[in-house]
Amino acid sequence: MHIKKIFLFITTAAVIAISACTKDSNVINNNNNTTGKTDTTSTPTKKTGTYVYVAGTVTSSQSVPVATYWANGKAHALADSSSESYAYAIATADTNVYIAGIANNAATYWKNGVATTLANGSMALGITVSGSDVYVAGVSSLNGTNVATYWKNGVATTLTDDLTPSVAVSIVVSGGDVYVAGYLAAAGNINTVCYWKNGAIQNVSTTSTSTFGASYFGTIGMVVTGSDVYITGAVENTADDHVIATLWKNGTPTALTTDGDQISSAATAIAASGSTVYVAGYDDNVATYWSGGTMHKISNVTQQYMATGLTIDGSDVYVAGNEGYNTTNAVYWKNGNLVTLSTRNSTTCGIGIVKY
User: Fold this and answer.
1) Residues 282-318: tens digit of each pLDDT
2) What is the residue-wise DSSP string for 60-129?
């Protein structure tokens, strides 16, 4: 499969809407606004055991995308279908579930289904929790330019100026340091993968010859273990006809697949368990994960699949993904066993485990 070149500001209709916004990202709404609507169709019951949470988006019967999460396979809408909403990331902490996305044209995150609005005309693309602090990565508008931004408990920090468009996709807090992974828009519509540590950009240039390579794929994962920073993505090959799944460790790239047979691959998510680093993505239409660099293909070749999220629970490997291409169904795998979440047009963005 030759992946479409997904440029910086046309990944979704929501991003296009942001391009027209001129709101300064340093002006934010009251972070106590709760505008989301949770699913109340079932009587609440006390949860026990292990719950698998998957975040994503489902197209409603009115053809409107609705941010959604599944708890052990049961769907819960995070907003109504009066306007478009999207879920882009998920994090779990203790028994709390946090989801980042967009609702009512505003960067939003939900804690246990209750929405907090961060900024109008912005997007929330990544989320993590450290103690009582909630960190969200995304993009806001600064003087008409889309710029990488993160919010700590609702307070925005922009990571670039308004001269170079940029996006923040993933965020990690480790040892008191805040790491944000994303990309810059370089010459020729090439997106250059980078990361920031405590607001300072690390080992990257704004040209396609960057240490981090040129990424056309909008999804970037990041994990920090000790002093090592790992980032996932995809890099255009030298012939410029397909992309290659890539893992960067402290700025040094390693291709996860070979540049042969004009087969596209991408690495979309990452997790670490002990000393082992797990990466999820796809290779030639097949949902795939790598553990310690070893490839594991987990879907069949008769249908197109891709992996979008990954989490590890002991010896169990959970991977969220999508079945199909133009029209997709939300799915996940536990140790390679497929679970279909929706037969409606739907996508996933991540997966988490909570033990009650």
Assistant:
1) 998 899 999 999 999 999 888 899 999 999 999 999 9
2) -TTS-EEEEEEETTEEEESS-TTS-EEEEEEEEETTEEEEEEEETTEEEEEETTEEEEEEET-EEEEEEE
Say whether pLDDT at 83 is over 70. yes
SS3 15: helix
pTM: 0.86
* Token pair for 173: 């807090």
* Termini Cα distance of the chain: 41
Our CA dihedral for 333, 336, 339, 345, rounded to 10 degrees, sits at 60
DSSP 188: G
Contacts of 294 (CB under 8 A, 6+ apart): none
Which CA distances in Å does 91 have to 18, 31, 117, 236, 296? 24, 19, 17, 30, 24
Q: How far is CA 318 from CA 175, 220, 255, 311, 323, in A?
A: 26, 18, 23, 5, 16
Provide Rg for the chain, Cα atoms: 19
CB contact set of 148 (below 8 Å; sequence gap of 6+): 137, 139, 158, 159, 160, 166, 167, 168, 180, 182, 196
Rounded-to-integer distance, Cα 29 and Cα 334, Å? 39
